[in-house]
Description:
In chain A, 50% of the residues are buried. Helices cover 41% and strands 19% of the residues of chain A. Chain A has helices at 19-30, 44-54, 68-81, 100-106, 118-128; strands at residues 6-10, 34-37, 58-63, 88-93, 110-113. Chain A is globular and about 35 Å long. By secondary structure, chain A is of the alpha/beta class. Chain A has a five-stranded parallel beta sheet with strand order 2-1-3-4-5, sandwiched between helices. Chain A starts with 5 loop residues before the first strand and ends in a 7-residue tail after the last helix. Chain B is of the alpha/beta class. Chain B has a domain at 5-49 and 181-465: TIM Barrel (Alpha-Beta Barrel). Chain B has 21 helices and twelve strands. In chain B, the strands form four sheets. In chain B, strands 5-6-7-8 form a four-stranded parallel beta sheet. In chain B, helix 19 runs parallel beside helix 21. The two termini of chain B are 22 Å apart. The chains are: A alpha/beta, B alpha/beta. The interface between A and B is large, with 35 and 45 residues.
Amino acid sequence: MQRRIKVLIAKPGLDGHDRGAKVVAYALRDAGMEVIYTGLHQTVDQIISTALEEDVDVIGLSIMSGAHLPICEKLMQRVREEGLEDRLVVVGGVIPKEDVPKLKTLGVKGVFPGGTPLQEIVDFILKNAPTREGV
Amino acid sequence: MGVAKYIKDEKDRVLEVIFQSGIKVKPHYGPKDLEEVGFDYEKDLGEPGEYPFTRSIHPQGYRTREWTTRQYTGFGTPKETNERFKLMISQGQTGLNVAFDLPTQMGLDSDDPLAEGEVGRVGMAVDTLRDFEIAFEGIALDRIGTGLTINAVASIMLAMYQAVAEKFGYRPEVISATPQNDILKEMIGRGMWIFPVEPSVKLIGDTIEYSMKVMPRTNAVSVCGYHIRESGATPAQEIAYAFQIANTYIEEVVRRGYHVDQFARGITFNFNIFGNLWEQVAKFRAARKLWAKLLKEKWGAKERRTMFLRGLFGGGGSGLTKEQPIINVVRGAYYALAAALGGAQTTALCSYDEAYTIPTPYSALISLRTLQLLMDEVGLRDTVDPLAGSYFIETLTKQMESKILEEMAEIDRIGGMKRAVETGYVQRKVAQQAYQWQKGLERGEYIKIGVNKYTDPGPLGEEGEVELHKYDPRTAEEQIKALKEVKRTRDNREVLKRLKDLEAAARQGKNVMPYLVEAVKAYATVGEMTKVFKEVFGEFQEPSIF
């Protein structure tokens, strides 16, 4: 039987604006996913260890400070080190258009700048989350 | 958030209008409506400058003094920030409002591994007094008041502001700082908290007590309904939660044996201006009146000045859109109009490009000019509280008052604001409202131009038209180099001694401000002083709201 998609919503770095992260968390939960929210001020290592512990399918980052490139670079490196390449990584926040291809090159599959409709995020995750068998 | 709900028939005629605070608007208003809400001219309105100050705290409003303009400014190194301060002042800005970078707001030095990638990004980096010496060089600190938008470590920044002023030859009595210093709202929105609720509130009590004695022109706290609204609160909740937070801080100082007439004038407010125009104007008028009543009736204030609601009504950030950004210039002008009609003493306006970037000099100046234009050209200085006496506005002001009181009562029922924050009650409530509003927006229940109506930008252009503020990675290098130089040249034994004294004072529950001032003067770093507090106070654990 296919299990429910499990999503980690994370706030990496020092930025404390979490309205968007919480709104997306509610939307994914309403769409039938299991959602874990890390809370604020998480280091990349903390996020990776939560992702491993909870064995999530999707890691969703919310970054509003403009530091999305250095943070995602660090995160994707840790993703590779921990063998989590089969998990879907997405990011949302204050992200200029010109940075979208750079994030994709880093291995971030979905980029959702502010103003992206919730349904678009839900649909993207439903379509792209890895399907893994549940027990 | 920011728009009312409109229920229409199939011919697009408006059947019902419901404001976010839950008030239904009628198609027209008359004397009967005033009767129904129990409006009484003397009791509810009175003369401008007289209790309950619904119309204004000044008898002649903007005639005697136009509003102070205080654009939120700061980025990169202290030197870059100093240049931007001077640009804004030369363009007629009358106050400063310092933006700090995230490491500084979190009490981390620029060379802390956790600060990587964030140094000087969203505000100015500050490690030691040396940075303030550069940032405020050439600014007349006896004439220009300065907002310091920082909270968890506001006590440190206030100490630093006093130290830099003294260094430049200004006595503490003549300087006017407004540290934001409102930690409870950081725990509800914005998220720049460090220490747990109790010691955080204690630190705020210290700054209020100290300012009262040493820097009487300083406003120790700016309680922010602003960010709570940005996080999803209605306008009525914005005021209600801010007042309950203010009550918490007042209680902390009254507990120490002081009377509100000695210190409460140092508690100011920061409220938001986006949303339905009438609802905002009524909100400000109701707030002014309720605050005066609260100080008089709950806290026994005798002096008029204690009862003044003073503050910055401005910003409007979450009303602005990423879509068709140039339209935000117009939106911002209407939000600023709400601030002026609401009698703001101090104001600032988010810039049209803020959904993308740190404002450029170009966009920051458009905001400043918008504010100047309202005073000098459009007629907002002509007469005080120009909407007074309107059947609609007076009815609405009374209704807003009731809504705010209801929301305040709810916080009382659950045991006050400290408890409401520790348990995550308010955080959960505003997050759920933000979600419901977002869904409503996507279903088209609320209209937002460019987002769900008139979405084709045509020649207005999209993102490509906005010039992005470039983050320079050399900022961090320069800042770290400067920090190393300070550490190399300061008297490290003196620093250690001052930090030890600070720790002892914190452990003994003394007012830490005099100790911070000494540590700052010895060039202790923000990170070093914060570390002392972390060891003594511990750190805040965010309640789970899911």
